[in-house]
Amino acid sequence: MCGSSNRQRQMALMVRRRFNLSPIGPIWFPQSFSFYNVEANGPLHNRLMINPGYICSEYFGEGHPGGEIINKIRHEDLQKLSFESKSLDLVLSSDVLEHVPAPYDAHMEVFRVLKPGGRHIFTAPFNPLTIEDDVRAVIENGEVKYLAEKLYHSDPVRPSEGVLVWTIFGVEMIRKLETLGFKVRAWNLYEPESGIVGNCNTIFEAEKPA
Length: 210
Known about the structure:
By secondary structure, this protein is α/β, with parallel strands linked by helices.
């Protein structure tokens, strides 16, 4: 995948394997397959956008209703998605959930919009050596309260500002997702023949039971 990161290649390989797609070439789903990517840029997005059932979005901040089109891009807030319940076969998010103030509200929304048997394939900063999530900031009384030194990641929507990291996840994330109703699996992929080398991101699959 030209120009892709190791993480994006891991995501692409997992999608191909979980849905029995060709290991090379276009990533093509049946016309009836409806899926949502929580970003509207990058090499994986470019591969997926050929599909008629593909939906993508960015987050443009408070004050925009879900589904609004801004500069030709759909706006969505993961904490309150505008999709109908049980309407999507697949949700993809790659290092997004750490930037959501209430990430488990977002997971609940993903569970709601997935069809029975649907999957959320995602990556997020994850420390398997810690039990509890490292919550670095919270919202209290409408204001951001920082619990640790401010940490920002680059943001394609606001490149000059970056985007705040609210949470780095620990093992408790898996338990919380199972409490929400998901069946959770995790992989660390290292496959040089598929261009997956170097640091291995943990790829999570949260499946909504059929």
